Amino acid sequence: MESAIFVQNLHKTFRNGSSLKAVDGVSFEVAPGEIFSLLGPNGAGKTTTISMLSALLKPDNGATGANDIRIMGRSLITEPLAAKAMIGVVPQDIALYQDLSALENLIFWAKMYGLKGTLLKTRVAEVLDLIGLTDRANDRISKYSGGMKRRVNIGVALLHQPKVIYMDEPTVGIDPQSRRSILDGVIALKNQGMTVLYTTHYMEEAQELSDRIAIMDHGKIIANDSHENLIRLVGQKTRISLSINTEPETMIEPWKACKGVSTIAIEESKINLLVDDSNKVLPRLFETAAAKDVRITSVEIQEPNLETVFLHLTGRALRDA
Amino acid sequence: MKSLTIALNDLRRSFRSTFALLFMFGIPLLVTGMFFVMFGNIKNTDAPVIATTKVALANLDAGNAQTGQLGQTLVDALQSEGLSKLMEVTLVKDSASAREMVVNQQAGVAIIIPANFSDSFSDTQAKVEVEFIQDPTLILGPQVVRSVLNQMLDAYAGIKITVAESLKMAENGNLSYDEISRIVTEYMAATEFSSDSTPLIDLRSPAALPKKNPMVSLVGPIMAGMMIFYAFFTGANTANSILREDEEGTLQRMFTTPTAHTEIMRGKFYSVGLTVIVQVTVLMIAARIIFGIQWGMLASAALTALAIACVAGTFGIMLVSFLKSTKQSGIIFGGALTVTGMLGMVNIFTGNPQSAPLGIVPLFTPQGWATRAILASMDGAAVGTILPSLLIMVAMSIVFFVIGVWRLQSRFA
């Protein structure tokens, strides 16, 4: 089966005085009807990648020059208009005309997607219904709440019934209720057969939504698999987060030497460890601390998840990476 | 035609913005309106510019059996409907009362018709003096009244001379008394010396040109200048929407739609042109209705308006192409447009377009050529006369557009 999204060897370097390699050889494929998440900390290269996939940024040629982006078989580089007709893009920030109403925004964007006449009217009405704003269609966007703006922002991308939809961190800065609504909406889109490329730095979202997850760090994809398979990367390792009554650095070397500890890192004055079996390792950690006259003030045990995977792959926690 | 969709969307947004509306229409009309009010609040009518002068009139004329009550005829003429907006006549019984009214500033002018006024007509050698006393603190009103009075008295003198000459001819047997009567009657009719005559003062423009109201002549160039000045601001501000949309993310969103980048940019350029055309058209129509300003022949005015829209829009596009962000726009627009605008319109405010070097300075700015074209059109110039100015504006527009588009396309498309 042909991929809905085919990305090969993307590179992008920004040169503003110094040189910043934002995307470094990214390749992946997304099957039709799949939700594919790009997970990574801020600055990992997710937005740059999605910008290149939206034809907003031109990829560099890279070392080999063999880069390509194909959407439903159409090359974004050689057939940009045909490829873009397959895509609906939900930008990270609200990209709407604040001084126009939701209805006027939707009509304008529908025209930009090439819709006309009855089809335009029908689709605008359907999208308004879908985002639950039919009653407030004539209100200006500036009068909407953050969540409502997000819904219109998503609605615009759905007007032309695209085969593929890109969602760039659509839940940033909104209330839990709106967030829940958006996540449910993404699942509904998948159920309608749409392919979704979703970027986020919230591992819970990636975990809940995604068929497959690509973890990005420093412009590279460091892992790309289903949630279950990614978890298997860390085996049965458990994440233990500890606080102590002195500088965290004091216990890094002693605990690193303990049997069963595979990774150790400091995050926000806490010490995070990946261990094989928490039941066996925890007593050793307490003993070592006692020997150094250090008191453990809090303990948190977490079963393996994407956070654990990121810690395992990079040695850093996802949130502070 | 997505470019048109973009242009119309921008147009709608521009006309929803109170700030933009104020700049596009409010301020130009308001400034012109201020001048209009300051200089007399007069529309395109034949009404006088100056205020009505109060006149105290003492008619002491005793009349004459042969010539009748000529003093009363003069009174009737001064009280005629045609002069009612120039002077408000109050009849007083004697010369002292008339003088007193001027002294007490109850009247600006006192006119005293002497007792022998009518008698003087029956005696061709007799002299008569009509006294004219004015409030020394007033200038314009009394001068107008004096001018009207002089005109009337000249007419009297003319009649008197006509009668005298006719009598001499009669004595020589060249004319019968019936013919003398007809000549005098025709002369009196020709002087329009009767209470129901047409106005004594009738200013006429050269026959080829329509009659102009002096107030409109004063306010017209100011309105034209305001229109051009703010059209350039509108051009720049509308072009600035490219940067604004870039910062708000809507431009990038457009680029993600199946629309060619060049078409999107074309739409933005159309929006600049359309917005300025609408602004100039509305201002011209509004100024015609409100202030009675004549913009000249339709073809000349329309082509000039189009050329102004072109040069203002493209100048704005070029200016915006040099900006990195909208944060710079206030300084750049304020500086560049104010300086070029002031230089371009210097002749409107100095009132001497021919003087060098002041007359040449505006020609280095697009506003200067726009001003030159619109003033010529307002003076009734035909298209052929203003064509050189229009062609220079078009040439400037092409240069501005090429620079602006080249810079913006390489940045966004």
Number of strands of chain B: 4
Q: Which radius of gyration of chain B do the C-alpha atoms yield?
A: 32 Å
Return the structural class of chain B: mainly alpha
- Give the biggest beta sheet of chain B: 4 strands, mixed
Q: What is the number of independent domains of chain A?
A: 2
How many helical stretches of chain A? 11
Strand arrangement, major sheet of chain B: 2-1-3-4
Keywords:
heterodimer, A: 321 residues, alpha/beta, Rossmann fold, 11 helices, 34% helix, B: 413 residues, mainly alpha, D-Maltodextrin-Binding Protein, domain 2, 4-stranded mixed beta sheet, 5% strand
Would you give an account of this structure?
The complex is a heterodimer of chains A (321) and B (413). Chain A is built from eleven helices and 14 strands. Chain A is of the alpha/beta class. Chain A folds into two domains: 5-231, Rossmann fold (3-Layer(aba) Sandwich), CATH 3.40.50; 236-303, 2-Layer Sandwich (Alpha-Beta Plaits). In chain A, the strands form three sheets. Chain A has a six-stranded mixed beta sheet with strand order 6-7-8-3-9-10, sandwiched between helices. A four-stranded antiparallel beta sheet of chain A has the order 2-1-4-5. The longest helix of chain A has 16 residues, at 176-191. The relative contact order of chain A is 0.14. The model of chain A has no long low-confidence stretch (mean pLDDT 88). Chain B is mainly alpha-helical. Chain B has two domains: 2-42 and 213-412, no CATH class; 53-190, 3-Layer(aba) Sandwich (D-Maltodextrin-Binding Protein, domain 2), CATH 3.40.190. Chain B has a four-stranded mixed beta sheet, with helices on both faces. Chain B is elongated. Classes of the chains: A alpha/beta (321), B mainly alpha (413). Chain A binds chain B through residues 54-56, 81-82, 84-85, 87, 89, 91, 93-100, 104, 108-109, 111-114, 156, and chain B through 2, 5-6, 9, 12-13, 16-17, 248-250, 252-260.
